[in-house]
Design goal:
Layout: H1 7-19, E1 27-29, E2 32-34, E3 41-45, E4 52-57, H2 61-77, H3 85-101, H4 103-114, H5 118-139, E5 146-147, E6 154-162, E7 165-169, H6 175-188, E8 192-196, H7 203-215, E9 222-224, H8 229-238, E10 244-248, H9 251-263, E11 268-272, E12 278-281, H10 288-300, E13 312-316, H11 320-330, H12 352-367, E14 371-374, E15 378-379, E16 387-388, E17 391-394, H13 401-404, E18 411-417, H14 420-428, E19 432-433, E20 435-439, H15 443-452, E21 457-460, E22 475-476, E23 493-501
Parallel strand pairs: 7-8, 7-10, 8-9, 10-11, 12-13, 12-20, 13-18, 17-18, 20-21
Antiparallel strand pairs: 1-2, 3-4, 5-6, 6-23, 14-17, 15-16, 19-22
Helix pairs in contact: 2-8, 3-5, 3-7, 4-5, 4-7, 5-6, 10-11
The protein binds nicotinamide-adenine-dinucleotide and manganese (II) ion.
Length: 503
C-alpha cells in the first residue's frame, strides 16, 4: 500500500526527489551507472508542470557497442543463462518483490516523467510490471521441452535455448509495464538484455536496472541505455551482435526496424505496434450503461495514450442517441486534473509535441465534417503542463483521418452502422488489427463477430480484459508476436532439433 495519500504528500516527495537530485539519470552497464561516452545529456521535462526533472544520459553507437559486448560476455559466461531454471525463478520472484517494495518511488517517477495519474502509476503500472516479472519467472521451471515421435533406434530432442542478447526498445505510454512485459520472459529464459526506454520516459527503466541488481540478477544481464531512437535505438537495431530485437511503439518505426534487421544481421524482430481498435455496440447490448462507462474509459484512460484504445466506437443506429448521451455523462469522470492528486483519472499528455498532434487531429475532425460533441481543447495551461480534454466526435465516417490514423490521445470517433455485416466490414477496414470490443446479448452474433474480426484480441461485453495468461498483440500492421502468456517465450528462445541415432 502507498504511504502517501494526498496531493500534498506526493508533491512534497516529488520536490524532495528533484531538489536533492536523487533521480537516477545515467546509463546502466555491467551493474554500474555511467554517463554516455560522449558525455551528452538531454533535459527530462515533466509534462505535469513543465519542470526539468533531471538531465538524462544521451547514449549513442559507442554506448550500444559497450552494452551489447557486455551483455554478450555475460550471456556466454553462463552466470545467468546456464543456472537451473528454478534458480532463475527464485531471482525473478525476488525482482518482482523489490519492484513492489519500491512501488511509490517508481510510481512517482512514472507520473512525473510522462504525466499519468498517480492513482494508476502504482496500482496499474508498477504492480502490473511486477506481475509480469513474477509470472514469467514462475513459469520458467514448468515449461518442458519435447521429444519427437521417432523410430525405436532414434531420439529426436526438440529443445528451447535462450537466443542470447536481446535488445528491447519500448515506448512512453506504459514505460515500466511495457519494459517488464519484455523483461519477464526474456530474463526468465536466460537471455541478457539491453533495454532502451523512450527518450520521453526513461526514468523508471533507469531506476529498475539497479533494482534488478538488488534482487540478485547478475550484473550485465540487464543493461539500460537511455537516449533517442535515431541514435542509440538505431544503433541497437543495426547491431551485428544483437540476436533478437523486441519492440513496442509506432507502426512507422516498427517497419523501419525490419529494414534495419535486413540491413544488418537478420536479427529476429518482434513488433508490437499501433492500433485503431473498433469497439462495437449492437442494439442488443446487454447493458448500455456499462457499455458507455467502458467506452469512455477505453478512450480516456491513460489520456488515450493506449495502443488498444477503443478509438473507433461503432454503434448500431438503434442505440446511438442513448449511448452517446450516456458516454457524455461518463466522460465527466475523466476530466483532466493534476496527476499527483489521487482523485485524478486523466493526467497530462506526455509532452507538448504530443499535445500538438492531438490538437491537430481534433482540427482535422472538424475540418473533415465530423461533429464535435464534447471537449476539443487544451486545458490547465496555467500550471505549465500539457493537458487536453477528452473529446468526442459523432457523425464520423471510416474514411476520415480521425477514423484511420492512430491519434494516441483521448479522442473518440463515433461511427454508426446497421447490422452485423456492416459492423465487421467497418471494423476490419483499417491497416491495424490490435483489439476490438463487441457488445451484444446474442451469443451467436458475439462469436461470429469475434471470429470475423482480424484482430489479436477481442473483448466481449467489456473492454480491455485479460491478464498475464492471455497473449497480447495484433494482426496486420499492429505487429507480430505476442507479449504475455507462454506464447511470449517464443520470442526469446531458439528451437533446436537434436537427432540421435542409437547403435
Ligand atoms: P515510437 O515508435 O515513436 O517510439 C518507440 C520507441 O522506438 C522509443 O523508444 C523510440 O526512441 C524508439 N525509436 C524511434 N525511432 C527509432 C529508430 N529509428 N530506431 C530505433 N528505435 C527508434 O512510439 P511511441 O510514440 O514511443 O509510442 C507510441 C506508439 O506505441 C503507438 O503507436 C502505440 O500504439 C504503440 N504501442 C503499442 C503497444 C502494443 O503492445 N501493441 C503498446 C503500447 C504502445
Ligand atoms: Mn518525460
Amino acid at each position: 500500500m502507498s504511504t502517501a495519500n494526498s496531493r500534498e504528500q506526493w508533491q512534497s516527495r516529488a520536490d524532495k526527489l528533484i531538489s536533492n537530485k536523487e533521480i537516477k539519470a545515467d546509463a546502466f552497464i555491467d551493474g554500474k551507472y555511467l554517463a554516455s561516452v560522449s558525455g551528452e545529456r538531454f533535459d527530462c521535462v515533466s509534462p505535469v508542470d513543465g519542470r526539468v526533472l533531471c538531465q538524462v544520459a544521451s547514449c549513442d553507437i559507442e554506448d550500444a557497442n559497450i552494452a551489447v559486448a557486455n551483455a554478450r560476455q555475460t550471456f556466454d559466461s553462463g552466470v545467468w543463462s546456464e543456472i537451473p531454471p528454478v534458480k532463475r525463478k527464485q531471482v525473478m520472484i525476488r525482482f518482482a518483490e523489490v519492484l513492489e517494495h519500491n512501488r511509490d518511488e517508481l510510481a512517482l517517477l512514472e507520473t512525473l516523467d510522462m504525466g499519468k495519474p498517480i492513482r494508476y502509476s502504482g496500482s496499474v503500472d508498477v504492480d502490473g510490471a511486477a506481475r509480469a516479472i513474477r509470472w514469467s519467472g514462475e513459469a520458467i521451471d514448468k515449461i518442458y521441452d519435447e521429444l519427437a515421435p521417432t523410430a525405436h533406434n532414434e531420439i529426436g530432442m526438440i529443445t528451447r535455448e535462450p537466443v542470447g542478447v536481446v535488445a528491447a526498445i519500448v515506448p512512453w505510454n506504459f514505460p515500466i509495464l511495457m519494459a517488464c512485459w519484455k523483461l519477464g520472459p526474456a530474463l526468465a529464459a536466460g537471455n541478457s538484455v539491453v533495454l532502451k526506454p523512450s527518450e520521453k520516459s526513461p526514468l523508471t527503466a533507469i531506476r529498475m536496472a539497479q533494482i534488478a541488481i538488488e534482487a540478485g540478477i547478475p550484473k550485465g544481464v540487464l543493461n539500460v541505455l537511455p537516449g533517442f531512437g535515431h541514435t542509440v535505438g538505431k544503433a541497437l537495431a543495426l547491431h551485428m551482435d544483437v540476436d533478437t530485437l523486441v519492440f513496442t511503439g509506432s507502426t512507422k518505426i516498427a517497419k523501419q526496424l525490419m529494414i534495419y534487421a535486413g540491413e544488418s544481421n537478420m536479427k529476429r524482430v518482434w513488433l508490437e505496434a499501433g492500433g485503431k481498435s473498433p469497439n462495437i455496440v449492437f442494439n442488443d447490448a446487454p447493458n448500455l450503461k456499462k457499455a458507455a462507462e467502458s467506452a469512455a474509459a477505453a478512450i480516456a484512460f491513460n489520456q488515450g495514450e493506449v495502443c488498444t484504445a477503443g478509438s473507433r466506437l461503432l454503434v448500431e443506429a438503434g442505440v446511438k442517441d442513448e449511448l452517446l448521451t450516456l458516454i457524455a455523462e461518463e466522460m465527466q469522470a475523466w476530466q483532466p486534473g493534476h496527476p499527483l492528486d489521487p482523485a485524478t483519472t486523466c493526467g497530462a499528455v506526455v509532452d507538448k509535441q504530443q499535445l500538438d498532434n492531438v490538437l491537430s487531429y481534433i482540427k482535422s475532425g472538424v475540418d473533415e465534417g465530423a461533429k464535435l460533441i464534447q471537449g476539443g481543447g487544451q486545458v490547465m495551461a496555467e500550471c505549465g503542463g500539457v493537458y487536453v480534454q477528452p473529446t468526442i466526435f459523432s457523425e464520423v465516417n471510416n474514411q476520415m483521418t480521425i477514423a484511420k490514423e492512430e491519434i494516441f490521445g483521448p479522442v473518440l470517433s463515433v461511427i454508426t452502422f446497421d447490422g452485423m455485416d456492416q459492423a465487421i466490414e467497418i471494423g476490419n477496414d483499417s491497416i491495424y488489427g490490435l483489439a476490438a470490443g463487441v457488445w451484444t446479448s446474442d451469443i451467436s452474433k458475439a462469436h461470429k463477430t469475434a471470429k470475423a474480426l482480424r484482430s489479436g484480441m477481442v473483448w466481449i461485453n467489456h473492454y480491455d480484459g485479460g491478464d498475464m495468461t492471455a497473449p497480447f498483440g495484433g494482426y496486420k500492421q499492429s505487429g507480430n508476436g505476442r507479449d504475455k502468456s507462454l506464447h511470449a517465450f517464443d520470442k526469446y528462445t531458439e528451437i533446436k532439433a537434436t537427432w540421435i541415432m542409437l547403435d
